[in-house]
Amino acid sequence: MDKAKQQHNNILLAIAGFAAVVVIVALIGFLALDRDPEVIQGEMEVEEYRVSGKVPGRILELRVREGDFVQAGDTLAIIEAPEVDAKMAQAQSAVEAASAVEQMAKNGARKETVQAAFQLLEQAKAGLAIAEKTFNRIKVLFEEEVVSAQKFDEAEAMYKSAQAQVKAAQSQYDMAVNGARAEEKRAASATVGQARGAVQEVEGYVRETVQVAQMAGEVTDVYPKVGELVGTGTPIMSIALMDDLWATFNIREDMLKDIKIGSELTVRIPALDKEAKMKVYAMKDKGSFATWKATKSTGQYDQKTFEVKARPAETIDGVRPGMSVILNK
């Protein structure tokens, strides 16, 4: 009996010893072995702008292709727009017509018209002189009761009529000499300005038929083919500003402890097999749709994802938009 009990105790001791050894080995392995670091993968991005025109037309010529590097002011594409040429002809004709009206208002009447008005004025003055002499004679005779009151009234009426004719002729002559009124001259000048404004507007559309690069960059996409129609504002091509590259990372908030605006990150670019320094310049919440852990499933608070953007601290040779960027945490 004692021998069986002793064997049982030995077995228990062996099992306990084996369990202790397993636990000790597990603890040593856990403490001694380094855990793999969490890897955060981002992507290089670049600022782009799209080239588009204000006028609809047909692509007449494409001066660049995908991959070409362009400078500001380089011609990219030429659009054929016959309607713009027709509008220009109309606008220029309107300017010529308005200028002629303005010139006529400034110059006044023709010399022949002025001369005719002067002759009519002289004729009216001569008639007034005769009517005045006749009236004075009849007046003397009327006062001496030689002529009747009717004759006096007739002479007076003729005299006043002659005075009115002189005033009317004088007005016609002054109008012919002075030309149009000041208001008419201003109206004519305003019409010319309006017509010239229409020409400037059409000239702007003409310039839009030749698309030029606004900033230096690399052509990433060319959308239409030669001969295809493009509408107002339709993108013709995209140009990447290769001097404005950055990396974007999506990072859970529980991993943001050492990351803030202005922090310097050490990243690795697998495509180039090199490390680089980047500086964080922007951080923002990705929104509730980007939570990694739901409260209902874990009983803990929601952990949201933040978009972190960082620019290279110095130029990285060979880096391209779309390349992966690895951040070890």
Describe the secondary-structure layout:
Elements: H1 2-32, E1 39-52, E2 57-62, E3 69-70, E4 75-80, H2 82-107, H3 111-143, H4 149-178, H5 182-208, E5 210-212, E6 217-222, E7 229-230, E8 235-252, E9 264-269, E10 274-285, H6 295-298, E11 305-312, E12 324-328
Antiparallel strand pairs: 1-8, 1-12, 2-4, 2-7, 3-6, 4-5, 6-8, 8-11, 9-10, 9-12, 10-11
Describe this structure in words.
- The chain is of the alpha+beta class.
- The chain is 46% helix and 27% strand.
- The protein has six helices and twelve strands.
- The protein has helices at 2-32, 82-107, 111-143, 149-178, 182-208, 295-298; strands at 39-52, 57-62, 69-70, 75-80, 210-212, 217-222, 229-230, 235-252, 264-269, 274-285, 305-312, 324-328.
- The strands form two sheets. It has a six-stranded antiparallel β-barrel. Strands 5-4-2-7 form a four-stranded antiparallel β-sheet.
- Strand 9 and strand 10 (274-285) form a beta hairpin.
- Helix 2 runs antiparallel to helix 5 and helix 3 runs antiparallel to helix 4.
- The longest helix is centred in the middle third of the chain and has 33 residues, at 111-143.
- It starts with a helix and ends with a strand.
- The mean pLDDT is 81.
What is the residue-averaged pLDDT?
81
Which descriptor suits the 3D outline?
A: rod-shaped
Biggest sheet: strands side by side, in what order? Answer: 1-8-11-10-9-12
Order of helices and strands: HEEEEHHHHEEEEEEHEE
Low-confidence stretches: none
Name the structural class. Answer: alpha+beta
Strand content: 25-35%
Strand segment count:
12
Biggest sheet architecture: 6 strands, antiparallel, barrel
